[in-house]
Fold each of these.
Amino acid sequence: MSRLVKRRHLILGGLGLGAAGYMGTILTGLARPCGTGRPRLATLAGPRRIARELLRQGYVGRNEATEAKSPEALATAAQQDFAAGDTVICDGWVLARSEAEFALACLRDDTA
């Protein structure tokens, strides 16, 4: 019994030291706590970069208001565009037209 108790104390003590060390790095600014930051800006950085490249290449889009789509709806639309051959080339990548329109909409939302 005493061996089991010692093992439990060792494990719990190690976990406690690890948590204290992690909090120390957060408090000193060496690390950031998980789940913080601006995920919207981070996730839209790629589409914005793509949109800037599309505009640089002269792509203007369909000139129609693009409604917000869920990730599943965008994936379905992209599959349909690829099946229909409705694609756009951007910086060596072949994009579905709906992906290109989504990228332009992200850039428009950022500049509006």
Amino acid sequence: MIANDAFDGAAPANVSNLSAAELKARWDAFLDARFAACEADAVSEIAAGRCQVTAIDNRGSLPSDSVDPITIEDLAAFRPIVGELVVEPDGWGVVGTPTNFYATAESHTMQGDLLGSAVTVRWTPTTYAFDYGDGTTQTTEGSGAAWSGTGEQWTETSTSHAYSSRDDVTASLTVTFTAEVDAGGGWFQVPGSLPVEAPAVPVKVFEVDTVLTAGDCAAAPTAPGCG
């Protein structure tokens, strides 16, 4: 069979202005009907097994309904919330002792308009690049965590850092996010990733010396070793 207007009123007619998707739907329905008619007219199961309907399109190239996929650059208006870099204890550290760092960025969603459609974007942090400000860096898949109570203070964590000298440094953090989009039909992954810098944090590094005293310096500030 030839896909044109020559069929007896059953084949798709006036197809010149149809999109590729509309044309395919109409031809699928037509061919299904022709196949069913063939099987109904068959005199035996063997004959029914030989029914085959073929359509040949002689119109040339069909119009394309394809749409360019969404990229990470299309989500510029949905900039993820990067949170902050936290330094324990309270933005300072001691030479040779772990100073704890952790990020507050976490998975979150945003609603808005994308290419004329209402969508929900879900951002997920995948890596955390810590720069401790003294030339030392570390990239992790985890955000780190706060010390749990006074018993954990000054203990090493997966994202802590021990400075080797007294200094005033600036620590920074870059979080890399991936994105998923839901336009009402379910989530799909957006190709690529987006690195976002958190606000830098000043860190004051002190050096502590241990000395022997003759007693409690608070009670006797002039005692040997005090002052």
Amino acid sequence: MAHNTDDEPKTNRSTYRKRLRNALSFKKTRSRRRKSLNPYSISFFGVWFLAMIAAVGFHAPDEPSYRAQLEEWHQNRIKSLKSETGWLNLAGLFWLNEGKNSVGRGPDFDVRFPVANELKELGIFTLQNGEVRFTPNPGASVQADGKPVTESLVIFSGAKSKPPVLAHESLRWFIIKRGPKYGVRLRDLEGQFLRDFHGIDRFPIDETWKVKAKLEKPSEPKTIPILDVLGQTTQTPLAGTLVFDHAGKTYRLDAVGEGEKLFILFGDPTNEHDTYGAGRFLYADKPAADGTTTLDFNQSINPPCAFTPYATCPLPPKQNKLAVAIKAGEKRYGDH
């Protein structure tokens, strides 16, 4: 039987209309679904999307490495040494006699400051009954904490917690007390020690010398004798004994308190050649609630006496002289 080709266009038109209706129906359904997402859903998906991007594509910067932290600590140490209140500019230490002590730039005075362009009388120190006065010489340009000194001024007494700093040109000075002695500590901001300073040698960083230590506190308040380079002994409150292990052995170091830190004076066999002969200093944080702290011997430092003959350094007590060589921290800078 012959095929009727006249029915093909009708069939194609019918199929097309059916497909068009289906497409329009799908579009409406998708539109309704989009409208069904309320603002809260949109916010949720937005936050979720951003969180996924942050987790995959962004990372918080890493903490500085241990070596970077030590290098930053060392640079701050150098800045402190070279600062106006650092040890490198010490230029003199003059012990006062009871009564009047003349002071000036040159050899003709009781207290002999370095000569600059000419001999110059600056004034009179008067020590009496534990009090020190400074009386300026007429015409001398002297300031106390930045203000001109024009008349007699008390610059040290038992009632004053911090003595004023006096200044003349590049010189700075103030009064210190060591035992029964009263002295004038002099700084020169253009001094030789400061000009000659070119850094401090250190041992290579050794992380095995960063150790945990347990602070054993005394059962009742206790002092330990600390001898200084002047030969004077001071009974110093004991904060406790730090107990730590290294390479399978246990060591102990007595610590005293200094502000918010523990202060440790220690000696070891490196003092013979590699480090300062009289020992080194180390500071540590006061212990946490569990009684532990960290001793980082890579931060062991030379005492001030390594940099100047005008410091009055304390010396390690005999119980703090260790048998193990601590090859970490600062090496010998000088002997004064």
